[in-house]
Amino acid sequence: MAPARSALRLAAPGRPTAAAAAAATARFALARPSLTARRALSFRRASSSSSFSSSASTARRTPSFPVVTAAAAAASLALSGSLLVYTMATDDPIRCDTLTLAERDAQLRRDTGGVVDARSPMRLRMEQLIKEQQQAIVAGLTAIENSGGVATVGGGVEGRVEGQDSSSLPPRVFRQDTWQRKEGGGGITCVLQDGVVFEKAGVGVSVVYGTLPKAAIQRMRADHKSLAAAGRGGGGGGDLPDSLEFFAAGLSLVVHPRNPLAPTVHLNYRYFETAPTTTASDAAAADNTGTSWWFGGGTDLTPSYLYEDDAVHFHRTLKDVCDRHHPAFYPGFKTWCDEYFCNKHRQESRGIGGIFFDDLDETFVAPAGQGSSTSVSTSTSTSTTPPLDKEQLFAFVGDGLRAFLPAYAPIMARRKDLPFTAAEKEWQQLRRGRYVEFNLVHDRGTAFGLNTPGARVESILMSLPLTASWRYMHEPAPQSREQQLVDVLRKPREWV
Question: Does the keyword Cytoplasm feature in the UniProt annotation (predicted)?
Fold first, then answer.
């Protein structure tokens, strides 16, 4: 005796929407039942046979409008490849497989012809923003690289044949690699190496879809309070789910100039979202929200030699951006940057800072010990500024990205052509060693990237300098310019 209900999964080239399934059902109702469909109906109990006979008889009398049962429709649709589920049930509605975040976004792109606007999910809007800004930043850095400057060592020329006019060199351009992840998503990595101005510069965009296992969710909850809602039931009080889908999109760049008197700079802005799996029928209802979401990022400057006017310009540019959105942002994010970009094993900051933030959503409050002396909050009732919603935070991230070139390009214009000595170049290599230490030992982004299945290691380690060095028990000479920098790194200053 056949079971009352059973299901068999069939391979299919795509996952149809509910609308597509309905259309296919309608088309079937106007067609003659196939032999396979009639065989599917034979699984019905004898008590249903008379009904089937009556229907079949009616179909023969009126061939233009045959009467077809739900079981026949299900069988025909399944075997024609229109559905992923073959059902012999006669009562339950047909259900499609669940859709991943990557599949939902791919379907949205097809439905809209790739158009992204204010109504699109934040996932697609963030992806569009970072790809646009990547190209703008690459164009700006390319212009600096080809601006005719040279880096000199003791009167000689580094990075090209001595005496060769830089205008005779072919234009230096970024190598651009577009890559895909089999797990979902991909990215664009733009790198320039062995330039005249930039020894190495990398500007990368990554868009990653994946699944967080339970252990990863547990670890991330300590740093991302919005994941407290990941417990079953949505209130955060239940058990953690076995897994969560996630989406992460970000733009990350690191620029290492050839001249040791010009500073290294780092930038990263990102958006992270988690979501439960959804079915085709309810995917449309889950357009702009997930279980949790947040923005993170910032930018910071790492000089080998301290120029106070460079530090003031860089910080003032960032402060102007922050102040346009929330008065608590700059003081909190500046202190947070000093504390995060710290080589704790060396007891010194990586550089002279900038801004840094994470877990930024509409309920954001800086963790204890981070931010300014008063908590950084976009939702505190004591603030005279209303809470910032998702759209306002997205606008802040966009302004932060657009502020990069105004913050960094004037500094490079002042420093890239200054003459320097071999000793200054050696000090730059030692400072780069400290940079490598932070990225490989302390940076959460590097650790997350390397531990993500399907990670593209070349893009993750793009931030490392082309050259670096370490010397045993090295200390700068007292009262030297090198010692002046170390003093600031051990006791961060307020620049604006």
Answer: no
Pairwise pLDDT comparison (17 vs 436), residue with the higher score: 436
Contact (CB, 8 A) for 208 and 453: no
Rounded to an integer, what distance in angstroms lies between the CA atom of residue 189 and that of residue 169?
24
Q: What is the pTM of this model?
A: 0.73
Q: Which secondary structure element, helix H or strand E, spans residue 392, and what is its range? A: helix 390-402
258-317 per-position pLDDT tens digit = 999 999 999 999 999 998 755 444 544 445 444 789 999 999 999 999 999 999 999 999
The encoded tokens of residue 33 equal 């039942």
CATH of the domain at 466: 3.40.1500.10
**Catalytically annotated residues:** 266
Distance CA 227, CA 211 (A): 14
- The number of C-alpha atoms within 13 Å of 151 and in the hemisphere containing its C-beta is 25
pLDDT, tens digit, 9 for 90 and up, residues 164-181: 555 667 899 999 999 998
169 secondary structure, DSSP code: S
**179, 18, 24, 185: which is closest to 103 by C-alpha?**
185
Ranges of beta strands (E only) in 71-197 are 85-87, 98-99, 151-153, 156-158, 175-180, 185-193
Q: In this structure, is residue 448 part of a structural domain?
A: yes
d(C-alpha 357, C-alpha 269), whole Å? 9
> Does some domain include residue 109?
yes
